[in-house]
Amino acid sequence: MINKKNNSKNICRDPVVISDFLMLTDNDKIQLPSIVAKVNGYEISLNYLNIELINDMKLGIIPSEMSSSDLLESYYYALESVIEHELIVQKMNEDSSISRWEPDKEQVTECMQELFDEFGIDISEEYSKQEIEELVLQELRIQQFIDNQLGDNSVSKEEIEHEYQNSPEKGEMQKEYIRVILEYEKREEQYKNFILELKNAASIETYL
Question: pTM, whole model, 2 decimals?
Answer without folding.
Answer: 0.79
